[in-house]
Amino acid sequence: MADAYIVETVRTAGGRRGGALRDWHPANLGAEVLNALVERSGIEGGVIDDVIVGCVTQAGEQSFAFGRNCVLASKLPQSVPAVTIDRQCGSSQQAVQFAAQAVMSGTQDVVVAMGVESMTRVPMMSNVTLHAKAGLGEGPFSDRIAERYGTKNFSQFIGAEMVAQKHGFNREELDSFALESHRRATAASNAGAFDAEIVPLAVEGGMHTRDEGIRDDATLESISNVKLLDPNGMISAANASQICDGAAAVLVVSEAALKKYNLTAKARVVNLTVTAGDPMIMLEEPLPATDRALERAGMKIDDIDLFEVNEAFAPIPMAWLKHTGADPEKLNVNGGAIALGHPLGASGARLMTTLVHSLNAQGKKYGLQTMCEGGGIANVTIIEAV
């Protein structure tokens, strides 16, 4: 089977809800990372075979063939096609995997995988609530699903609490993990670790180049004082990922395209895995998914140099660490979504962007990315820096 290579990957700095990126139409956010990807890679936009765009809340400004609208708002020729996909929080990680599969199969040579989410302008769950307000149908979970699972209440917040309880964590441990995310993100940002991956955007007051969610002054006390989402639980807004606006993009090409267009690869795709499990405790799936990915790749956890595990909620990467026995010093070394934000459909490409740049900057070889996804699904992608 042919190899798939990552040539370039970029992202916007995250914007808080109602923050710096509030005036950016999401199609324009997507267009900006597309333009930067083409410019930085040196490829001519017209040779792109397809653009695969992850987006979770496909409503309002993120509806009506949203991926295509990102292309139409960009400098790419109108001849470049695009498609929008939804695998919940893993949407743009799946976009990367679809792009790699297209290249590895030999059906395409140059594919862009990207993700966009403006959680300010298209609020989370608004595609569901608009449907409910219109009085149309029963919502996304049918009577057959309710009969099978005894409920229609499939909540990621409940799933996070279930993971925390199952793996024996307490709130102080969750809050301490959250604090470390801010500390690492602060150190990385101050050291310029994100500079090469961020696409500057013009905003009110100047250029947006720093993730707004990073709290340089975070303390365990300030995090612990945040109100619990469930008075009887452990999850708070402070030990969960931040609502965020952002976009990210990854250029995936074949070996033939590397030679034909004189491109330089940053990484090679080693393994693509997706698994699914219990939709109730849905966020635990990265654990068995990682086991399967390593087995299929013929690797062990110690073979991996850096990990990006999405910090949807603190107990998820904590449970993943406990299950895999991975070195915590290799996990989310520049902080994670608790500090940097989680722009839903864009997060998969954002994590891949940071992983690729981190491997190259640190001279490391193998990286593994995984994230929990609604419905009990998880993607795992293993790459090798080249």
From TrEMBL:
The keyword Signal does not apply. Keywords: Acyltransferase, Transferase. GO terms for molecular function: acetyl-CoA C-acyltransferase activity. Pfam families: Thiolase_C, Thiolase_N. Coiled coil: none annotated. Residues 264-384 form the Thiolase C-terminal domain. It comes from the Bacteria. Belongs to the thiolase-like superfamily. Thiolase family. NCBIfam families: AcCoA-C-Actrans, PRK06504.1. This is Acetyl-CoA C-acetyltransferase. It comes from Sulfitobacter marinus. The lineage of its organism: Bacteria, Pseudomonadati, Pseudomonadota, Alphaproteobacteria, Rhodobacterales.
